[in-house]
Design a protein that fits this description.
The structure is a single chain. This protein is mainly alpha-helical. The chain is 72% helix and 0% strand. The protein is built from 11 helices and no strands. Helix 1 packs across helix 6, helix 9 packs antiparallel against helix 10 and helix 10 packs antiparallel against helix 11.
Length: 208
Amino acid sequence: MNLGATILELRTKANMSQEDLANALNVSRQSISKWETNLSVPELERLLKMSKLFNISIDELVQGSTEVVNKKSKDILDRGQIQGLEIRKIVGLGLIGIGFLFSILLFVFGEFFSALVLPLPFFITGLISLFVKKHTALWCGWAVYILISIYFRFAATICFWWVFYKKFYQGGLTIRNIVAWIMTIALGILIFLTIKANKHRNSPEALE
């Protein structure tokens, strides 16, 4: 059995689609298709990740021993089922649960408006964790940042861009100044991480 056929069989035994495997290895689905049809060969780093993912050695993966594949098929299937309950989905359900609990507590104590607004970050990041497979944490970060920015804009009249105006510092160092700077720094970090993620996504390795 050649390498492409081995990858196909291991992926099938693990109940994974080409896209699932691509996400696990941080490559495109087209890369998986090329590997399985022997149009290209995975790099060593990807082979190492696949060997860990499918719980076999590099030699067994490259040699493609049918006997080894059959022997490990039950373990691979179990791993595939466990991966079906990915950590991000568990986290997502947990965040939504916290949001509901938070809402109920606020309703009980008579904070109707707060019960509608304050739990929103939990609900939105929970939904992102459930349905967004790639760069989940980054998307959650943007969602939380936008919600917090809206809150500070209308509840405390604080905007991140005020740090660039001299007039903003006339009253000396205040809590509003500190919050605005924190918002500005957080925005810079999110932009940096987004650019970095897109560079990796558009790299030759990811588009292979």
